[in-house]
Amino acid sequence: xxxxxxxxxxxxxxxxxxxxxxxxxxxxxxxxxxxxxxxxxxxxxxxxxxxxxxxxxxxxxxxxxxxxxxxxxxxxxxxxxxxxxxxxxxxxxxxxxxxxxxxxxxxxxxxxxxxxxxxxxxxxxxxxxxxxxxxxxxxxxxxxxxxxxxxxxxxxxxxxxxxxxxxxxxxxxxxxxxxxxxxxxxxxxxxxxxxxxxxxxxxxxxxxxxxxxxxxxxxxxxxxxxxxxxxxxxxxxxxxxxxxxxxxxxxxxxxxxxxxxxxxxxxxxxxxxxxxxxxxxxxxxxxxxxxxxxxxxxxxxxxxxxxxxxxxxxxxxxxxxxxxxxxxxxxxxxxxxxxxxxxxxxxxxxxxxxxxxxxxxxxxxxxxx
Amino acid sequence: xxxxxxxxxxxxxxxxxxxxxxxxxxxxxxxxxxxxxxxxxxxxxxxxxxxxxxxxxxxxxxxxxxxxxxxxxxxxxxxxxxxxxxxxxxxxxxxxxxxxxxxxxxxxxxxxxxxxxxxxxxxxxxxxxxxxxxxxxxxxxxxxxxxxxxxxxxxxxxxxxxxxxxxxxxxxxxxxxxxxxxxxxxxxxxxxxxxxxxxxxxxxxxxxxxxxxxxxxxxxxxxxxx
Lengths: 369, 226
Description:
The complex is a heterodimer.
Chain A: E1 14-24, E2 27-37, E3 39-43, H1 50-58, E4 65-70, E5 73-77, E6 82-83, E7 91-94, H2 106-116, H3 126-132, H4 148-161, E8 166-170, H5 178-195, E9 199-203, H6 206-212, E10 215-220, E11 223-229, H7 230-236, E12 246-257, E13 260-265, E14 268-273, H8 274-277, E15 282-287, E16 291-294, E17 305-317, E18 320-327, E19 330-337, H9 338-344, E20 351-356, E21 362-365
Parallel strand pairs in A: 3-9, 3-10, 7-8, 8-9
Antiparallel strand pairs in A: 1-2, 1-4, 4-5, 5-6, 10-11, 12-13, 12-15, 13-14, 15-21, 16-20, 17-18, 17-20, 18-19
Chain B: H1 5-38, H2 44-56, H3 59-70, H4 75-82, H5 92-118, H6 121-128, H7 133-144, H8 146-162, H9 165-171, H10 181-190, H11 194-225
Helix pairs in contact in B: 1-5, 1-8, 2-5, 3-9, 5-8, 5-9, 6-7, 8-11, 10-11
Protein backbone atom coordinates (compact mmCIF):
# COMPACT_ATOMS: atom_id res chain seq x y z
CA UNK A 1 0.00 0.00 0.00
CA UNK A 2 1.51 3.24 -0.97
CA UNK A 3 -0.41 6.04 0.80
CA UNK A 4 1.02 8.35 3.43
CA UNK A 5 2.00 6.51 6.54
CA UNK A 6 0.31 7.56 9.71
CA UNK A 7 1.79 6.85 13.08
CA UNK A 8 0.49 3.47 14.19
CA UNK A 9 -1.23 3.11 17.52
CA UNK A 10 -1.45 0.22 19.90
CA UNK A 11 -4.71 -1.55 19.22
CA UNK A 12 -7.05 -1.26 22.17
CA UNK A 13 -8.18 -4.54 23.62
CA UNK A 14 -11.85 -5.36 23.54
CA UNK A 15 -13.24 -6.96 26.63
CA UNK A 16 -16.35 -8.73 25.55
CA UNK A 17 -18.65 -10.84 27.66
CA UNK A 18 -21.29 -12.54 25.60
CA UNK A 19 -23.75 -14.77 27.38
CA UNK A 20 -26.90 -14.83 25.30
CA UNK A 21 -29.64 -17.10 24.06
CA UNK A 22 -32.01 -16.49 21.21
CA UNK A 23 -34.60 -18.84 19.76
CA UNK A 24 -36.45 -18.78 16.47
CA UNK A 25 -38.72 -21.52 15.13
CA UNK A 26 -36.30 -24.33 14.27
CA UNK A 27 -33.17 -22.54 15.44
CA UNK A 28 -31.62 -21.72 18.77
CA UNK A 29 -28.44 -19.72 19.36
CA UNK A 30 -26.57 -20.04 22.62
CA UNK A 31 -23.26 -18.31 23.23
CA UNK A 32 -21.37 -18.04 26.48
CA UNK A 33 -17.94 -16.54 26.01
CA UNK A 34 -15.73 -14.02 27.67
CA UNK A 35 -12.83 -12.75 25.62
CA UNK A 36 -10.14 -10.17 25.52
CA UNK A 37 -8.53 -9.47 22.18
CA UNK A 38 -7.76 -7.13 19.35
CA UNK A 39 -8.61 -9.06 16.20
CA UNK A 40 -11.27 -11.63 16.92
CA UNK A 41 -13.05 -13.75 14.34
CA UNK A 42 -16.50 -15.30 14.37
CA UNK A 43 -16.37 -18.25 12.05
CA UNK A 44 -19.11 -20.54 10.84
CA UNK A 45 -20.95 -21.73 7.79
CA UNK A 46 -24.25 -20.30 6.61
CA UNK A 47 -26.93 -20.87 9.26
CA UNK A 48 -24.44 -21.28 12.09
CA UNK A 49 -25.76 -18.21 13.92
CA UNK A 50 -23.06 -15.66 13.06
CA UNK A 51 -25.48 -13.06 11.74
CA UNK A 52 -27.82 -13.51 14.71
CA UNK A 53 -24.92 -12.96 17.06
CA UNK A 54 -23.78 -9.85 15.21
CA UNK A 55 -27.31 -8.44 15.19
CA UNK A 56 -27.54 -8.93 18.97
CA UNK A 57 -24.17 -7.35 19.52
CA UNK A 58 -25.02 -4.34 17.35
CA UNK A 59 -28.37 -3.99 19.11
CA UNK A 60 -30.65 -4.82 16.18
CA UNK A 61 -31.92 -8.02 17.75
CA UNK A 62 -32.86 -8.46 21.38
CA UNK A 63 -31.62 -11.67 22.98
CA UNK A 64 -34.24 -13.76 24.79
CA UNK A 65 -32.01 -14.09 27.77
CA UNK A 66 -28.52 -13.22 29.02
CA UNK A 67 -26.17 -10.29 28.97
CA UNK A 68 -23.67 -8.52 26.74
CA UNK A 69 -20.88 -6.46 28.26
CA UNK A 70 -18.34 -4.48 26.26
CA UNK A 71 -15.37 -2.95 28.06
CA UNK A 72 -17.23 -3.25 31.34
CA UNK A 73 -20.37 -1.51 30.11
CA UNK A 74 -23.59 -3.50 30.04
CA UNK A 75 -25.12 -3.28 26.60
CA UNK A 76 -27.82 -5.83 27.33
CA UNK A 77 -29.03 -7.54 30.44
CA UNK A 78 -32.31 -9.42 30.61
CA UNK A 79 -32.08 -9.59 34.41
CA UNK A 80 -31.54 -5.84 34.84
CA UNK A 81 -33.76 -4.95 31.87
CA UNK A 82 -31.00 -3.04 30.09
CA UNK A 83 -30.92 -2.81 26.31
CA UNK A 84 -28.72 0.02 25.03
CA UNK A 85 -29.95 1.38 21.69
CA UNK A 86 -27.74 0.59 18.64
CA UNK A 87 -26.80 4.23 18.10
CA UNK A 88 -25.56 4.52 21.68
CA UNK A 89 -23.35 1.40 21.68
CA UNK A 90 -20.45 2.95 19.71
CA UNK A 91 -20.13 -0.23 17.69
CA UNK A 92 -19.63 0.61 14.02
CA UNK A 93 -20.17 -1.93 11.28
CA UNK A 94 -18.82 -2.72 7.87
CA UNK A 95 -21.38 -4.76 5.98
CA UNK A 96 -21.23 -7.32 3.20
CA UNK A 97 -22.81 -4.80 0.84
CA UNK A 98 -21.14 -1.43 1.25
CA UNK A 99 -24.48 0.23 2.17
CA UNK A 100 -23.23 3.72 1.43
CA UNK A 101 -25.86 6.45 1.32
CA UNK A 102 -26.45 7.19 -2.37
CA UNK A 103 -27.70 10.74 -1.78
CA UNK A 104 -24.39 11.78 -0.20
CA UNK A 105 -21.03 12.10 -1.93
CA UNK A 106 -17.94 10.32 -0.62
CA UNK A 107 -16.95 13.14 1.74
CA UNK A 108 -20.40 13.36 3.32
CA UNK A 109 -20.68 9.59 3.61
CA UNK A 110 -17.35 9.57 5.43
CA UNK A 111 -18.48 12.32 7.77
CA UNK A 112 -21.93 10.88 8.54
CA UNK A 113 -20.87 9.03 11.68
CA UNK A 114 -18.15 11.53 12.57
CA UNK A 115 -20.67 14.38 12.77
CA UNK A 116 -22.81 12.32 15.13
CA UNK A 117 -19.97 11.25 17.37
CA UNK A 118 -19.53 13.10 20.65
CA UNK A 119 -16.73 15.65 20.38
CA UNK A 120 -14.96 14.01 23.32
CA UNK A 121 -14.71 10.74 21.35
CA UNK A 122 -13.44 12.29 18.13
CA UNK A 123 -9.85 11.14 17.97
CA UNK A 124 -9.85 10.04 14.33
CA UNK A 125 -10.46 12.78 11.78
CA UNK A 126 -11.16 12.92 8.07
CA UNK A 127 -7.65 14.15 7.29
CA UNK A 128 -6.09 11.13 8.96
CA UNK A 129 -8.26 8.42 7.39
CA UNK A 130 -8.18 9.71 3.80
CA UNK A 131 -4.50 8.95 3.11
CA UNK A 132 -4.63 5.55 4.80
CA UNK A 133 -7.50 4.45 2.58
CA UNK A 134 -6.24 6.40 -0.43
CA UNK A 135 -9.44 8.33 -0.87
CA UNK A 136 -7.96 11.72 -1.80
CA UNK A 137 -9.19 11.65 -5.38
CA UNK A 138 -12.63 10.33 -4.50
CA UNK A 139 -13.89 12.81 -1.91
CA UNK A 140 -16.20 14.80 -4.17
CA UNK A 141 -17.36 11.82 -6.23
CA UNK A 142 -20.87 10.38 -6.16
CA UNK A 143 -21.21 6.89 -4.77
CA UNK A 144 -22.60 5.50 -8.02
CA UNK A 145 -19.38 6.36 -9.86
CA UNK A 146 -17.14 4.27 -7.58
CA UNK A 147 -15.93 0.72 -8.20
CA UNK A 148 -16.81 -2.05 -5.74
CA UNK A 149 -13.43 -1.87 -4.04
CA UNK A 150 -13.58 1.91 -3.72
CA UNK A 151 -17.09 1.69 -2.24
CA UNK A 152 -15.92 -0.82 0.35
CA UNK A 153 -12.99 1.44 1.27
CA UNK A 154 -15.34 4.38 1.74
CA UNK A 155 -17.64 2.21 3.88
CA UNK A 156 -14.65 1.22 6.00
CA UNK A 157 -13.56 4.83 6.36
CA UNK A 158 -17.06 5.88 7.32
CA UNK A 159 -17.21 3.24 10.05
CA UNK A 160 -13.80 4.21 11.43
CA UNK A 161 -14.66 7.92 11.40
CA UNK A 162 -17.60 7.21 13.68
CA UNK A 163 -14.79 6.69 16.23
CA UNK A 164 -16.21 3.42 17.55
CA UNK A 165 -14.76 1.42 20.41
CA UNK A 166 -15.40 -1.76 18.43
CA UNK A 167 -15.64 -2.40 14.71
CA UNK A 168 -17.91 -5.22 13.51
CA UNK A 169 -17.00 -6.48 10.08
CA UNK A 170 -19.86 -8.64 8.87
CA UNK A 171 -18.55 -10.64 5.91
CA UNK A 172 -17.17 -7.46 4.34
CA UNK A 173 -15.34 -9.38 1.61
CA UNK A 174 -17.89 -11.93 0.53
CA UNK A 175 -19.49 -9.69 -2.10
CA UNK A 176 -16.12 -9.03 -3.74
CA UNK A 177 -14.27 -11.17 -6.24
CA UNK A 178 -10.90 -12.67 -5.30
CA UNK A 179 -8.83 -9.88 -6.82
CA UNK A 180 -10.74 -7.18 -4.96
CA UNK A 181 -10.91 -9.22 -1.77
CA UNK A 182 -7.16 -9.31 -1.41
CA UNK A 183 -6.89 -5.65 -2.34
CA UNK A 184 -9.23 -4.73 0.51
CA UNK A 185 -7.72 -6.94 3.23
CA UNK A 186 -4.63 -4.75 3.75
CA UNK A 187 -6.92 -1.74 4.19
CA UNK A 188 -9.09 -3.57 6.70
CA UNK A 189 -6.05 -4.55 8.70
CA UNK A 190 -4.26 -1.26 8.41
CA UNK A 191 -7.10 0.90 9.70
CA UNK A 192 -7.25 -1.16 12.84
CA UNK A 193 -3.48 -0.94 13.26
CA UNK A 194 -3.32 2.78 12.46
CA UNK A 195 -6.17 3.84 14.65
CA UNK A 196 -6.05 1.26 17.41
CA UNK A 197 -9.62 0.01 17.01
CA UNK A 198 -10.25 -3.64 17.90
CA UNK A 199 -12.52 -5.57 15.58
CA UNK A 200 -14.75 -8.59 15.33
CA UNK A 201 -14.44 -10.13 11.90
CA UNK A 202 -17.28 -12.38 10.77
CA UNK A 203 -16.73 -14.79 7.91
CA UNK A 204 -17.21 -18.32 6.66
CA UNK A 205 -13.76 -18.28 5.04
CA UNK A 206 -10.90 -19.92 6.90
CA UNK A 207 -8.41 -18.07 4.75
CA UNK A 208 -9.91 -14.70 5.68
CA UNK A 209 -9.78 -15.76 9.33
CA UNK A 210 -6.10 -16.53 8.97
CA UNK A 211 -5.38 -13.18 7.37
CA UNK A 212 -7.57 -11.03 9.56
CA UNK A 213 -7.76 -12.50 13.05
CA UNK A 214 -5.81 -13.88 15.97
CA UNK A 215 -8.55 -15.52 18.02
CA UNK A 216 -11.55 -17.24 16.48
CA UNK A 217 -14.91 -18.27 17.89
CA UNK A 218 -16.26 -21.08 15.73
CA UNK A 219 -20.02 -21.61 15.56
CA UNK A 220 -22.06 -24.50 14.28
CA UNK A 221 -25.86 -24.79 14.37
CA UNK A 222 -26.17 -21.96 16.85
CA UNK A 223 -23.60 -23.32 19.29
CA UNK A 224 -20.07 -22.13 19.89
CA UNK A 225 -17.92 -25.19 19.30
CA UNK A 226 -14.45 -23.78 19.53
CA UNK A 227 -12.44 -20.82 20.78
CA UNK A 228 -8.97 -21.00 19.39
CA UNK A 229 -6.39 -19.24 17.24
CA UNK A 230 -7.12 -18.86 13.55
CA UNK A 231 -3.97 -20.88 12.82
CA UNK A 232 -5.10 -23.73 15.04
CA UNK A 233 -8.60 -23.67 13.55
CA UNK A 234 -7.10 -24.04 10.07
CA UNK A 235 -5.04 -27.00 11.22
CA UNK A 236 -8.02 -28.60 12.96
CA UNK A 237 -10.04 -28.37 9.75
CA UNK A 238 -7.30 -29.45 7.36
CA UNK A 239 -8.61 -33.00 6.98
CA UNK A 240 -12.16 -31.87 6.16
CA UNK A 241 -11.14 -29.26 3.64
CA UNK A 242 -10.84 -30.25 -0.04
CA UNK A 243 -7.88 -27.89 -0.36
CA UNK A 244 -6.22 -29.02 2.87
CA UNK A 245 -4.27 -26.52 4.91
CA UNK A 246 -3.38 -23.35 3.02
CA UNK A 247 0.22 -22.23 3.50
CA UNK A 248 0.54 -18.47 3.10
CA UNK A 249 3.89 -17.36 1.73
CA UNK A 250 5.08 -13.81 1.38
CA UNK A 251 7.46 -13.93 -1.61
CA UNK A 252 9.78 -11.05 -2.46
CA UNK A 253 12.66 -9.96 -4.71
CA UNK A 254 11.49 -11.66 -7.87
CA UNK A 255 14.07 -12.35 -10.55
CA UNK A 256 13.49 -14.09 -13.86
CA UNK A 257 15.37 -17.30 -14.49
CA UNK A 258 15.02 -19.66 -17.45
CA UNK A 259 11.47 -18.55 -18.10
CA UNK A 260 10.52 -19.00 -14.44
CA UNK A 261 10.25 -16.63 -11.51
CA UNK A 262 12.64 -16.99 -8.60
CA UNK A 263 11.42 -15.49 -5.35
CA UNK A 264 13.03 -15.01 -1.98
CA UNK A 265 11.11 -16.71 0.81
CA UNK A 266 12.92 -15.87 4.02
CA UNK A 267 16.44 -17.26 3.43
CA UNK A 268 15.14 -19.80 0.92
CA UNK A 269 14.56 -19.42 -2.80
CA UNK A 270 11.44 -20.73 -4.56
CA UNK A 271 10.85 -21.18 -8.26
CA UNK A 272 7.38 -20.42 -9.58
CA UNK A 273 5.90 -20.79 -13.04
CA UNK A 274 5.78 -17.37 -14.67
CA UNK A 275 2.14 -17.88 -15.70
CA UNK A 276 1.05 -18.54 -12.12
CA UNK A 277 2.96 -15.88 -10.36
CA UNK A 278 2.95 -12.85 -12.62
CA UNK A 279 6.09 -10.85 -12.21
CA UNK A 280 5.72 -8.98 -8.96
CA UNK A 281 6.13 -9.78 -5.30
CA UNK A 282 3.19 -10.60 -3.11
CA UNK A 283 1.30 -13.10 -1.02
CA UNK A 284 0.94 -16.64 -2.38
CA UNK A 285 -0.99 -19.68 -1.27
CA UNK A 286 0.22 -23.25 -1.37
CA UNK A 287 -1.96 -26.18 -0.41
CA UNK A 288 -0.61 -28.73 2.05
CA UNK A 289 -1.72 -31.35 -0.50
CA UNK A 290 0.76 -29.99 -3.06
CA UNK A 291 3.83 -30.84 -0.96
CA UNK A 292 5.43 -34.26 -1.36
CA UNK A 293 7.81 -35.49 1.33
CA UNK A 294 10.90 -37.62 0.74
CA UNK A 295 12.89 -39.32 3.42
CA UNK A 296 16.08 -39.04 1.33
CA UNK A 297 17.19 -36.62 -1.34
CA UNK A 298 15.60 -37.89 -4.56
CA UNK A 299 17.98 -38.44 -7.46
CA UNK A 300 15.85 -36.86 -10.14
CA UNK A 301 12.54 -35.09 -9.77
CA UNK A 302 10.39 -32.91 -12.01
CA UNK A 303 9.26 -30.59 -9.20
CA UNK A 304 11.36 -27.41 -9.34
CA UNK A 305 11.52 -26.86 -5.60
CA UNK A 306 13.17 -29.30 -3.26
CA UNK A 307 13.61 -28.00 0.26
CA UNK A 308 15.51 -29.66 3.05
CA UNK A 309 13.35 -29.27 6.14
CA UNK A 310 13.13 -30.48 9.68
CA UNK A 311 9.83 -31.81 11.06
CA UNK A 312 8.89 -29.51 13.90
CA UNK A 313 5.41 -30.81 14.71
CA UNK A 314 2.86 -33.41 13.76
CA UNK A 315 -0.87 -32.99 14.15
CA UNK A 316 -3.91 -35.05 13.24
CA UNK A 317 -7.02 -33.83 11.51
CA UNK A 318 -9.73 -36.21 10.33
CA UNK A 319 -7.43 -39.19 9.67
CA UNK A 320 -4.93 -36.95 7.87
CA UNK A 321 -1.60 -36.02 9.38
CA UNK A 322 -0.32 -32.47 9.15
CA UNK A 323 3.46 -32.21 9.18
CA UNK A 324 4.85 -28.85 10.17
CA UNK A 325 8.20 -28.35 8.49
CA UNK A 326 10.87 -25.89 9.41
CA UNK A 327 12.55 -24.82 6.17
CA UNK A 328 15.37 -22.48 7.15
CA UNK A 329 13.67 -19.65 8.98
CA UNK A 330 10.24 -20.35 7.51
CA UNK A 331 7.50 -22.90 8.14
CA UNK A 332 5.31 -25.02 5.88
CA UNK A 333 2.60 -27.56 6.56
CA UNK A 334 2.39 -30.67 4.43
CA UNK A 335 -0.45 -33.19 4.55
CA UNK A 336 0.13 -36.91 4.41
CA UNK A 337 -1.70 -40.07 5.43
CA UNK A 338 -0.97 -42.23 8.50
CA UNK A 339 0.64 -44.94 6.37
CA UNK A 340 3.17 -42.47 4.95
CA UNK A 341 4.09 -41.36 8.46
CA UNK A 342 4.92 -44.94 9.37
CA UNK A 343 6.75 -45.76 6.13
CA UNK A 344 8.86 -42.63 6.16
CA UNK A 345 9.40 -42.78 9.91
CA UNK A 346 8.32 -39.19 10.26
CA UNK A 347 8.50 -37.80 13.73
CA UNK A 348 9.48 -34.55 15.34
CA UNK A 349 13.10 -33.60 14.60
CA UNK A 350 13.49 -35.81 11.52
CA UNK A 351 14.98 -34.24 8.38
CA UNK A 352 12.90 -34.65 5.19
CA UNK A 353 12.87 -33.22 1.70
CA UNK A 354 9.78 -31.34 0.55
CA UNK A 355 9.10 -31.25 -3.17
CA UNK A 356 6.85 -28.52 -4.54
CA UNK A 357 5.91 -28.03 -8.16
CA UNK A 358 6.53 -24.56 -9.56
CA UNK A 359 2.91 -24.43 -10.69
CA UNK A 360 1.50 -25.24 -7.23
CA UNK A 361 1.60 -21.65 -6.01
CA UNK A 362 -1.30 -19.24 -6.48
CA UNK A 363 -1.02 -15.53 -6.05
CA UNK A 364 -3.47 -14.02 -3.59
CA UNK A 365 -2.35 -10.42 -3.49
CA UNK A 366 0.27 -8.20 -5.00
CA UNK A 367 0.91 -6.45 -1.73
CA UNK A 368 2.07 -7.42 1.68
CA UNK A 369 -0.74 -8.55 3.96
CA UNK B 1 -61.96 40.74 -18.63
CA UNK B 2 -61.23 37.04 -19.17
CA UNK B 3 -62.36 36.12 -15.63
CA UNK B 4 -64.80 38.01 -13.43
CA UNK B 5 -64.29 38.86 -9.77
CA UNK B 6 -66.06 35.70 -8.49
CA UNK B 7 -63.97 33.48 -10.78
CA UNK B 8 -60.74 34.95 -9.44
CA UNK B 9 -62.07 34.58 -5.90
CA UNK B 10 -62.94 30.91 -6.53
CA UNK B 11 -59.52 30.20 -8.04
CA UNK B 12 -57.73 31.88 -5.15
CA UNK B 13 -59.85 29.92 -2.65
CA UNK B 14 -59.08 26.67 -4.49
CA UNK B 15 -55.35 27.34 -4.46
CA UNK B 16 -55.49 28.26 -0.77
CA UNK B 17 -57.48 25.10 0.06
CA UNK B 18 -55.16 22.83 -1.93
CA UNK B 19 -52.05 24.38 -0.37
CA UNK B 20 -53.34 24.03 3.19
CA UNK B 21 -54.53 20.45 2.60
CA UNK B 22 -51.20 19.45 1.04
CA UNK B 23 -49.28 20.99 3.94
CA UNK B 24 -51.46 19.24 6.52
CA UNK B 25 -51.22 15.92 4.72
CA UNK B 26 -47.43 16.15 4.49
CA UNK B 27 -47.35 16.39 8.27
CA UNK B 28 -50.12 13.88 9.01
CA UNK B 29 -49.67 11.49 6.09
CA UNK B 30 -45.92 10.95 6.49
CA UNK B 31 -46.07 9.20 9.90
CA UNK B 32 -49.11 7.18 8.79
CA UNK B 33 -47.25 6.07 5.65
CA UNK B 34 -44.18 5.26 7.75
CA UNK B 35 -46.25 3.19 10.15
CA UNK B 36 -47.98 1.34 7.32
CA UNK B 37 -44.61 0.61 5.70
CA UNK B 38 -42.97 -0.64 8.88
CA UNK B 39 -45.70 -2.17 11.01
CA UNK B 40 -46.28 -5.89 11.27
CA UNK B 41 -49.39 -5.42 13.39
CA UNK B 42 -52.63 -7.15 12.39
CA UNK B 43 -54.37 -3.77 12.30
CA UNK B 44 -52.16 -2.67 9.43
CA UNK B 45 -54.54 -4.29 6.92
CA UNK B 46 -57.74 -2.65 8.22
CA UNK B 47 -56.03 0.74 8.61
CA UNK B 48 -54.54 0.49 5.12
CA UNK B 49 -58.02 -0.24 3.76
CA UNK B 50 -59.51 2.77 5.59
CA UNK B 51 -56.77 5.02 4.22
CA UNK B 52 -57.47 3.80 0.67
CA UNK B 53 -61.27 4.06 1.01
CA UNK B 54 -61.61 7.52 -0.61
CA UNK B 55 -60.12 6.03 -3.79
CA UNK B 56 -63.22 3.91 -4.38
CA UNK B 57 -65.93 5.60 -2.33
CA UNK B 58 -68.32 7.97 -4.20
CA UNK B 59 -67.47 11.51 -3.01
CA UNK B 60 -71.10 12.08 -2.08
CA UNK B 61 -70.99 9.11 0.32
CA UNK B 62 -67.82 10.36 1.96
CA UNK B 63 -69.22 13.90 2.05
CA UNK B 64 -72.48 12.70 3.57
CA UNK B 65 -70.81 10.88 6.46
CA UNK B 66 -68.36 13.73 7.04
CA UNK B 67 -71.28 16.12 7.12
CA UNK B 68 -73.00 13.99 9.76
CA UNK B 69 -69.76 13.70 11.78
CA UNK B 70 -69.08 17.44 11.64
CA UNK B 71 -72.71 18.43 12.22
CA UNK B 72 -74.03 19.72 15.55
CA UNK B 73 -74.88 16.17 16.68
CA UNK B 74 -71.82 14.44 15.29
CA UNK B 75 -68.70 13.52 17.28
CA UNK B 76 -66.48 15.97 15.39
CA UNK B 77 -69.12 18.67 15.81
CA UNK B 78 -69.24 18.06 19.57
CA UNK B 79 -65.46 18.28 19.74
CA UNK B 80 -65.13 21.46 17.66
CA UNK B 81 -67.82 23.19 19.69
CA UNK B 82 -66.19 22.05 22.94
CA UNK B 83 -62.94 23.56 21.68
CA UNK B 84 -64.73 26.80 20.88
CA UNK B 85 -64.32 26.37 17.11
CA UNK B 86 -68.05 26.21 16.39
CA UNK B 87 -69.53 24.08 13.60
CA UNK B 88 -67.30 23.25 10.67
CA UNK B 89 -69.78 22.54 7.84
CA UNK B 90 -70.07 25.39 5.34
CA UNK B 91 -66.79 26.93 6.53
CA UNK B 92 -63.34 27.01 4.93
CA UNK B 93 -61.87 24.81 7.68
CA UNK B 94 -64.71 22.34 7.25
CA UNK B 95 -63.65 22.10 3.61
CA UNK B 96 -60.05 21.63 4.68
CA UNK B 97 -60.93 18.77 7.04
CA UNK B 98 -63.09 17.05 4.44
CA UNK B 99 -60.40 17.46 1.78
CA UNK B 100 -57.78 16.02 4.09
CA UNK B 101 -59.83 12.82 4.35
CA UNK B 102 -60.63 12.81 0.67
CA UNK B 103 -57.01 13.24 -0.47
CA UNK B 104 -55.43 11.08 2.24
CA UNK B 105 -54.52 8.09 0.00
CA UNK B 106 -52.93 10.36 -2.59
CA UNK B 107 -50.37 11.43 -0.02
CA UNK B 108 -50.00 8.20 1.94
CA UNK B 109 -49.71 5.57 -0.77
CA UNK B 110 -46.74 6.99 -2.74
CA UNK B 111 -44.91 7.60 0.53
CA UNK B 112 -45.71 4.13 1.86
CA UNK B 113 -44.36 2.59 -1.35
CA UNK B 114 -41.19 4.67 -1.09
CA UNK B 115 -40.60 3.72 2.56
CA UNK B 116 -41.17 0.04 1.80
CA UNK B 117 -38.69 0.20 -1.07
CA UNK B 118 -36.02 1.88 1.05
CA UNK B 119 -36.41 -0.82 3.69
CA UNK B 120 -34.92 -1.15 7.14
CA UNK B 121 -31.28 -1.45 6.07
CA UNK B 122 -30.30 2.24 5.74
CA UNK B 123 -31.76 2.86 9.19
CA UNK B 124 -29.67 0.05 10.65
CA UNK B 125 -26.55 1.38 8.93
CA UNK B 126 -27.27 4.89 10.21
CA UNK B 127 -27.78 3.52 13.73
CA UNK B 128 -24.31 1.93 13.71
CA UNK B 129 -23.02 5.39 12.83
CA UNK B 130 -24.72 6.97 15.83
CA UNK B 131 -27.96 8.20 14.26
CA UNK B 132 -31.23 7.85 16.18
CA UNK B 133 -34.33 6.67 14.31
CA UNK B 134 -35.59 10.23 13.97
CA UNK B 135 -32.19 11.50 12.83
CA UNK B 136 -31.88 8.64 10.33
CA UNK B 137 -35.37 9.41 9.03
CA UNK B 138 -34.51 13.03 8.31
CA UNK B 139 -30.92 12.49 7.16
CA UNK B 140 -31.35 9.30 5.13
CA UNK B 141 -34.95 8.25 4.50
CA UNK B 142 -36.29 11.70 3.64
CA UNK B 143 -33.59 12.51 1.04
CA UNK B 144 -33.88 9.03 -0.45
CA UNK B 145 -37.66 9.39 -0.81
CA UNK B 146 -37.75 13.02 -2.00
CA UNK B 147 -39.08 12.00 -5.41
CA UNK B 148 -42.01 10.28 -3.78
CA UNK B 149 -42.65 13.29 -1.55
CA UNK B 150 -42.77 15.46 -4.64
CA UNK B 151 -45.10 13.03 -6.42
CA UNK B 152 -47.38 12.69 -3.39
CA UNK B 153 -47.56 16.46 -2.90
CA UNK B 154 -48.38 17.15 -6.54
CA UNK B 155 -51.03 14.44 -6.65
CA UNK B 156 -52.60 15.66 -3.40
CA UNK B 157 -52.61 19.28 -4.56
CA UNK B 158 -54.07 18.43 -7.96
CA UNK B 159 -56.66 16.07 -6.50
CA UNK B 160 -57.81 18.72 -4.00
CA UNK B 161 -58.09 21.30 -6.77
CA UNK B 162 -60.32 18.97 -8.75
CA UNK B 163 -62.69 17.79 -6.03
CA UNK B 164 -66.38 18.60 -6.32
CA UNK B 165 -68.73 16.18 -4.57
CA UNK B 166 -67.24 16.36 -1.10
CA UNK B 167 -66.85 20.13 -1.36
CA UNK B 168 -70.46 20.58 -2.32
CA UNK B 169 -71.67 18.35 0.54
CA UNK B 170 -69.54 19.96 3.23
CA UNK B 171 -69.03 23.49 1.98
CA UNK B 172 -72.09 24.24 -0.04
CA UNK B 173 -71.66 27.22 -2.29
CA UNK B 174 -70.73 30.34 -0.31
CA UNK B 175 -68.80 32.89 -2.39
CA UNK B 176 -65.35 33.59 -0.98
CA UNK B 177 -65.76 30.96 1.74
CA UNK B 178 -66.50 27.60 0.17
CA UNK B 179 -67.11 28.24 -3.51
CA UNK B 180 -64.08 26.64 -5.13
CA UNK B 181 -63.29 26.53 -8.86
CA UNK B 182 -65.17 23.29 -9.60
CA UNK B 183 -68.32 24.61 -7.90
CA UNK B 184 -67.95 27.92 -9.74
CA UNK B 185 -67.98 26.08 -13.07
CA UNK B 186 -71.08 24.19 -11.99
CA UNK B 187 -72.75 27.52 -11.12
CA UNK B 188 -71.86 29.01 -14.49
CA UNK B 189 -73.32 26.01 -16.31
CA UNK B 190 -76.49 26.11 -14.24
CA UNK B 191 -76.86 29.81 -15.08
CA UNK B 192 -76.18 28.98 -18.76
CA UNK B 193 -73.04 31.17 -18.69
CA UNK B 194 -71.18 28.87 -21.01
CA UNK B 195 -68.45 31.35 -21.92
CA UNK B 196 -67.52 31.83 -18.25
CA UNK B 197 -67.76 28.08 -17.68
CA UNK B 198 -65.47 27.55 -20.68
CA UNK B 199 -62.92 30.01 -19.33
CA UNK B 200 -62.80 28.38 -15.88
CA UNK B 201 -62.89 24.85 -17.30
CA UNK B 202 -60.07 25.67 -19.70
CA UNK B 203 -57.97 26.98 -16.82
CA UNK B 204 -58.62 23.80 -14.83
CA UNK B 205 -57.82 21.65 -17.85
CA UNK B 206 -54.57 23.44 -18.61
CA UNK B 207 -53.60 23.45 -14.94
CA UNK B 208 -54.22 19.71 -14.54
CA UNK B 209 -52.36 18.94 -17.75
CA UNK B 210 -49.38 21.11 -16.80
CA UNK B 211 -49.17 19.55 -13.33
CA UNK B 212 -49.16 16.04 -14.75
CA UNK B 213 -46.79 17.02 -17.57
CA UNK B 214 -44.37 18.53 -15.07
CA UNK B 215 -44.59 15.40 -12.94
CA UNK B 216 -43.95 13.00 -15.81
CA UNK B 217 -41.17 15.08 -17.37
CA UNK B 218 -39.46 15.44 -14.00
CA UNK B 219 -39.74 11.72 -13.21
CA UNK B 220 -38.45 10.72 -16.64
CA UNK B 221 -35.55 13.13 -16.40
CA UNK B 222 -34.75 12.03 -12.87
CA UNK B 223 -34.94 8.37 -13.89
CA UNK B 224 -32.41 8.97 -16.65
CA UNK B 225 -30.00 10.73 -14.31
CA UNK B 226 -30.34 8.02 -11.66
